[in-house]
Write a structure and sequence with these properties.
45% of the residues lie in helices and 13% in strands. The protein is α/β, with parallel strands linked by helices. It is globular. It catalyses: L-aspartate 4-semialdehyde + pyruvate = (2S,4S)-4-hydroxy-2,3,4,5-tetrahydrodipicolinate + H2O + H(+).
Length: 294
C-alpha cells in the first residue's frame, strides 16, 4: 500500500520551542519537490513525545492540507496508553491522514498478548490503514514475529516499520507476512538491503536532509537493481552515520536548521541542541553530498 522513501518528518521549531509554521510549510514543499514518496508526520523524529495533543493535531492537519493528496501522509499516533493512541488515531482519520503509524507501547513493557490486544483494539476502533512500528531500542518492547503474524490477519493493519536493523528478522517477516502486509525499514543504513529482500520501502530520518537521494536508493532497490542501490547508498553512508551520532532527532534538527527549516536551537527538553563538538562531522557529510548549509 505504501512504498519507497517515506520521510520521518521533523517538526520545525523556533528558538523558543514553538512550532515554526512557515518552516513547516516550506519543508513539506521541499519534499514534494524532491520525490519523497510519503510523509510521516508527528512520529518520533517529529517530537511527538513532547508535542501537546493540540499541537499534534495541528501539525498533522497542516501537513495533510499542504500535501493536498499529492503523496500519502502517515500520522504518528502511537502511545503507551491504548486509550490515548485511540484518541490520536481517531483525530488523524478525521483530518484526512492516509494511514497511522503506531509505535509499540513503551515503558509499561506489555507481553506479547498485551501487544496483540493493544494493536487489535486500535485496528477495531478506527477504520484507517495502520502500520505497526517496532523499535525496541527506544520502547523496550519488541513485537515478535509470531505476534506480527497474528496481527497481519487484521485487514486494516497494512504494514510494519521494522527498525531493529536486523535483516534476519526482516527476512522472517517478509517470508511469513509479506502477502498480507508491507514490511518497511525503519533503519536507514540497512534499508536498501531490506527492500531487496522483498520489503516495500523505508521510513527515513536521512530523507529529511537528502530526499532525492533516498528516493533514488529506494527506487533502485524496489526495481531489484542491487548495484545502483549499493552505489547510491555508499554515497549516503556518511550522512546516515552522522545523523545518528547523537539521539534522534537532535542531529537531524540541526541539519535542517542549517538548511533553513527551523531554528538551530528549536528542539524541546529533555532533548538539547546538537553539541558543537559534533557539528563538523555532520556538516562535512552534508557538504559531501552538495547540500548547502548556512
Amino acid at each position: 500500500m505504501f512504498q519507497g522513501s517515506m520521510v520521518a518528518l521533523i517538526t520545525p521549531m523556533t528558538a523558543s520551542g514553538q512550532v515554526d509554521e512557515a518552516a513547516l510549510e516550506a519543508l513539506v514543499g521541499f519534499h514534494l519537490d524532491n520525490q519523497t514518496d510519503a510523509i510521516v508526520a508527528v512520529g518520533t523524529t517529529g517530537e511527538s513525545a513532547t508535542l501537546s495533543h493540540e499541537e499534534h493535531r495541528y501539525v498533522l492537519k497542516r501537513v495533510v492540507d499542504i500535501v493536498d493528496k499529492k503523496i500519502p501522509v502517515i500520522a504518528g499516533t502511537g502511545s503507551n496508553s491504548t486509550a490515548e493512541a485511540l484518541e490520536l488515531t481517531t483525530a488523524a482519520h478525521k483530518v484526512g491522514a492516509d494511514a497511522a503509524l503506531l509505535v509499540a507501547p513503551y515503558y509499561n513493557k506489555p507481553n506479547q498478548e498485551g501487544l496483540y490486544q493493544h494493536f487489535k483494539a486500535l485496528a477495531d476502533g478506527v477504520a484507517i490503514p495502520q502500520i505497526l512500528y517496532n523499535v525496541p531500542g527506544r520502547t523496550v518492547s519488541d513485537i515478535l514475529p509470531d505476534t506480527v503474524d497474528r496481527l497481519a490477519s487484521i485487514s486494516n493493519i497494512v504494514g510494519i516499520k521494522e527498525a531493529t536493523g536486523d535483516l534476519q528478522r526482516a527476512a522472517e517477516l517478509i517470508e511469513r507476512c509479506a502477502d498480507r502486509m508491507d514490511i518497511l525499514s525503519g533503519d536507514d543504513p540497512t534499508a536498501f538491503e531490506l527492500i531487496l529482500l522483498g520489503g516495500k520501502g523505508n521510513i527515513s530520518v536521512t530523507a529529511n536532509v537528502a530526499p532525492q537521494l533516498m528516493h533514488d536508493i529506494c527506487a533502485a532497490a524496489l526495481a531489484g537493481d542491487r548495484e545502483t542501490a549499493l552505489n547510491l547508498d555508499n554515497k549516503a553512508k556518511p550522512l546516515h552515520q552522522a545523523l545518528f551520532c547523537d539521539s534522534n532527532p537532535i542531529p537531524v534538527k540541526w541539519a535542517m536548521a542549517k538548511m533553513g527549516y527551523g531554528d538551530i536551537n528549536g528542539i524541546r527538553l529533555p532533548l538539547v541542541p546538537f553539541d558543537e563538538s559534533l557539528h563538523a562531522g555532520l556538516a562535512d557529510a552534508m557538504l559531501q553530498l552538495g547540500i548547502n548549509i548556512d
